Amino acid sequence: MMPAVPGLGRGRGWALALCATFTMAVSYLDRQTLAVLAPTVTAELRIDEQAYGWLVSAFSLAYFVGPPLAGRWLDRVGARRGLMLSVLVWSLVAAGHSLVTGFPMLIAMRLALGLAESPSYPGAAQIIQRGLRPEDRPRAFGILFTGSSFGAMVAPPLATFLAGQLGWRGAFVGTALVGLSWVPLWIWLTRSDAARVALDHAPEAPAQPAGRSEWWALLRDPAVLRAGALVLAVAPFIGVVMNWGAKFLVRHHGLAPLDVGRYLWIPPLLYDGGSILFGHWASRRASRVRDGSPARGLLGAAGVLSLALFAMPFAPTPLGAMLVAGLALVGGGGMFAILSSDMLGRVPARLVSSASGLTAAAQSLSYIVVNPLVGRSVDRWQSFTPALIALALWVLPGTLLWLLWRPKTAAPEPCG
Q1: What is the 3-state secondary structure (H, E, C) of the chain?
Q2: Mean pLDDT, to the nearest integer, of 108-132?
Q3: Number of independent structural domains in the chain
Q4: Which end of the chain has the lower number of beta carbons within 10 A, N or C?
Q5: Structural domain span for residue 223
């Protein structure tokens, strides 16, 4: 089968997809620096657990508003220019966290970072959908989600090392500078005419962006609603492991704040494994089964793995807790890889970034609601156990809904 854009070539398409994965890593490195340094930052600025929950929700609120708008913008201008501008802006905002003096300024920075990072996932999804052939896309989405977890995995050792050397303010500047290394690589990879054609225009409508009525129709599209429902079920427990892991280890296992980096890399690494593995299996299935049916068996298996979250608060050691959390994230990564490739195969190619932005908004909505509740629960019970059990149970209804919902037929592929 031909690639989505003639002349681009499969090798260059994969190079662009891998660079999109790097974009996600840069994004998560910058956003997770606060989560890693949260025990130190909140202690110095005298921010309690519930207020920290609002900090996490502030980023999510901006990321709820931003991605649908960013997706529509990227569908018009293309990911080639849009992503580079976004990385430059959010790196500046990430470094600006070093200047905060209290809760109001920090929450403003989280709002700004969430808006600046809004194009990251819609842009990366557009690159995969426009640059790769259909049977490669599930595998590419599995790899794409490793970018976010790789960034979250690198953040703990890097941020704690920089904080030990430069203080927590210097750590924010240092991680932002690391992320800027993406820019020259992107310029080099997108220098060819074929890459410009692939990333600047949708293959089915090279010069015609989606109309407003067509964009709004996505809000009622069954494929988007179905994917959004599963995101709302799965994202909360993944977000809590990523954003509250440092505080969990300090509270439940008595670790010093700068020692958490020894363990926090484990769940993101296992998330990577899950998204790659399930994405690979979904691609193999797509090459054999061409009737457009969803990979229900694979997603159900991933959902079962996510229930390992039940055991996280009962693990006797920090290593055991992170391994159990990581096993749950194997399932979470698999579900995200499957739901994303399935949904984007059912919407028009020129609306891929817009659809991706809507599911990113659903993810942020779950964070907006859940994080203050987790903070309130921990303040009340002095334990993460009730919150983690509730989040594990919450995965079940959304998973069952996705499995039972009969989707519409996949969108036809352009001939090129």
Answers
A1: CCCCCCCCCHHHHHHHHHHHHHHHHHHHHHHHHHHHHHHHHHHHHCCCHHHHHHHHHHHHHHHHHHHHHHHHHHHHHCHHHHHHHHHHHHHHHHHHHHHCCCHHHHHHHHHHHHHHCCCHHHHHHHHHHHHCCHHHHHHHHHHHHHHHHHHHHHHHHHHHHHHHHHHHHHHHHHHHHHHCCHHHHHHHHCCCHHHHHHHHCECCECCCCCCHHHHHHHHHCHHHHHHHHHHHHHHHHHHHHHHHHHHHHHHHHCCCHHHCHHHHCHHHHHHHHHHHHHHHHHHHHHHHCCCCCCCHHHHHHHHHHHHHHHHHHHCCCHHHHHHHHHHHHHHHHHHHHHHHHHHHCCCCHHHHHHHHHHHHHHHHHHHHHHHHHHHHHHHHHCCCHHHHHHHHHHHHHHHHHHHHCCCCCCCCCCCC
A2: 88
A3: 1
A4: N
A5: 10-404
